[in-house]
């Protein structure tokens, strides 16, 4: 009961705090989900993405002039 009372008094008692906590939670979850999926994608496709193979195809500026 103490946990539910604390939760009620902290978040659900006032509508403005409740709505704000929902928005902050959704924003935080969105950032965490995007970061996790990007890391998974980069790990799964390591060596196949342009950022991994760019050095094989792009020469530095001025290297071909000699």
Automatic annotation (TrEMBL):
| Domain of life assignment | Eukaryota
Q: What is its main location?
A: mitochondrion
> A GO BP term, please?
mitochondrial electron transport, ubiquinol to cytochrome c
Chain ranges passing through the membrane: 17-36
Q: Could you tell me which SUPFAM superfamilies the record lists for this protein?
A: Subunit X (non-heme 7 kDa protein) of cytochrome bc1 complex (Ubiquinol-cytochrome c reductase) (SSF81514)
Subcellular locations according to the entry: Mitochondrion inner membrane
Query: InterPro entries in the record, alphabetically?
Result: QCR9, QCR9_sf
Topology with respect to the bilayer: Single-pass membrane protein
Q: Which UniProt keywords apply?
A: Electron transport, Membrane, Mitochondrion, Mitochondrion inner membrane, Respiratory chain, Transmembrane, Transmembrane helix, Transport
Q: Name one Pfam family in it.
A: UCR_UQCRX_QCR9
Q: Name one GO cellular component term.
A: mitochondrial inner membrane
Task: List, alphabetically, the PANTHER family matched.
Answer: CYTOCHROME B-C1 COMPLEX SUBUNIT 9 (PTHR12980:SF0), UBIQUINOL-CYTOCHROME C REDUCTASE COMPLEX, SUBUNIT X (PTHR12980)
Q: What does this protein do?
A: Component of the ubiquinol-cytochrome c oxidoreductase, a multisubunit transmembrane complex that is part of the mitochondrial electron transport chain which drives oxidative phosphorylation. The complex plays an important role in the uptake of multiple carbon sources present in different host niches.
Q: How does it assemble?
A: Component of the ubiquinol-cytochrome c oxidoreductase (cytochrome b-c1 complex, complex III, CIII), a multisubunit enzyme composed of 3 respiratory subunits cytochrome b, cytochrome c1 and Rieske protein, 2 core protein subunits, and additional low-molecular weight protein subunits.
Similarity comment? Belongs to the UQCR10/QCR9 family.
Indicate what this protein is called per its UniProt record.
Answer: Complex III subunit 9
